[in-house]
Amino acid sequence: MESGFKDKIAQSGIHGILFSVLIAIILFAPKFLFFGTLGYAILTLIWCIRTHRSFTFRREFWLYFLLYSLYVVSLLWTENMELGLRDVEFKLLLLAGPLIFAYNKWSLKDLRSLIIGVNVVILIAFIRSIGVYMNCDDPFNDCLSNDANALGIHPTYMALFSVMAAVLALYNLLYKTKIWISNKYELIIKLLSVSFFLISAFYTYMVGSKAGVFGLIITVTILIFVWMKNLKDKRLFKIGLVGLFLGIMLVSYKLYQKPHYKQAVDRLIEYNQDNAYFRYKYGGTYWRQMESNTARILIWHISKQLIVMHPMGVGPGDVNDVLKARYKRMNLQLLAERGLNPHNQFVQIFLGLGIIGFIVFTMIIGYNFMLAYKRKYVLLSVFGAFVLMNVIFESILEHQHGVFFIVFFALIFEQVSRPKEKKIEQ
Predict the structure, then answer these.
(1) Gap between the Cα atoms of 408 and 40, Å rounded
(2) How far is CA 345 from the centre of its chain?
(3) Planar angle of CA 304, 388, 201, nearest 5 degrees
(4) 215 or 11: which leads in pLDDT
């Protein structure tokens, strides 16, 4: 009797449900991220003990442990111990994630419950942001795409979860339902998937994250392209390819008309054409309204110089201090006042942990692509591309939401893409 009850619970997608609740906690009550993760770990451990799950420590876990060890060891040469210890505390999820998933065995049922759960969470966030939007003085211009819609969380990190919700909804629509509607059940699933995708995609635009919007375009393109490539009718593939290209061009053109996105593209083009003049034009103390993309480009250039000077790293706790001193030396007062980090995780780690940390982090990012190629699993490819897009434009591991997203979703997709699960799916 008890065994039958356990089987029913296991088949209900309990892991996906619990993980969706955890996402809701960290998005709507971010101060409780640590306690929410701890509660999730305890519930998982209790469940695994009661169901006699075995402990499985996989090879990829060592990469996370090695990266965390480098953060701990770096305290030996870090002068700013306050920031160094904070880094070690924030990166504890690099240890917690692998330990949880050493017991936690995700199945395809768990993934399906996660698809619904995470989209429901984003739907709630979307409804809450509508209230913020309606109270805006100019709702049709300044507030439709605004970081206030991210409900107190940095828009980049809120966009991580909204994009993933949109990706999972589209994945469910393209890969988990039949092309032609054969019954009411199929129709309901398709309508829910389309609705969830549109809401999550639109909410990504609402939070005002450029990396989120560009990441959404890239991930949706990959999902649709792989799906079309697997179509038996090659004429449909060619027609779909043309439609996909035209759709990307149309969306890109519409985005380029928005000042928020146009300025980002123009700044990159301007820097590539003449980076010396770019630094002269935007680097002076007179430039008081420095736009975020301009700041990023200047910071990357400065960080590159510092990396050459400190190939073994300055210590994660000292990265901001070293950059701030450099800003002042170059009369970049606005950057010095804000104390901006490199806004690139590769640069952040190279400057903090040196070449060894850079290699380990590159291996972690590359491992997703290697698994995706080896296992032919599209969600891993999409996830890897999306993470790569974000770590290029943001120091994503400097915030617990970013560490949580990368570690936990990587481990989830690694588990559901194992050959045994794919065989069950087929």
Answers:
(1) 12
(2) 12
(3) 130
(4) 215
Structure token pair of residue 344:
């690139």
* Distance of alpha carbon 24 from alpha carbon 155, whole angstroms: 16
Helices within 106-233 (DSSP H only): 108-134, 155-175, 184-206, 210-229
Q: Which of 293, 298, 301 is nearest to 265 (CA)?
A: 293
Cα 91 off chain centre by:
16
State how far the alpha carbon of 222 is from the alpha carbons of 137, 248, 330, 392, 398, in Å: 38, 12, 42, 19, 28
CA angle 338, 340, 342 (to 5 degrees): 170
Structure tokens at 58: 């996989």
pLDDT for residue 160: 93
Q: Which two tokens stand for residue 288?
A: 């008081």
Backbone φ and ψ for 95, nearest 5 degrees, come out as: -90, -40
Residue found under tokens 């209790």: 46
pTM score of the predicted model:
0.86
pLDDT digits (tens, 9 = 90+) for 94-126: 888 887 777 777 888 888 899 999 999 999 999
Q: Please state, in angstroms and rounded to a whole number, the distance separating the CA atoms of residues 15 and 17.
A: 5
Q: Would you list the DSSP string of 35-58?
A: HHHHHHHHHHHHHHHHTTPPP---
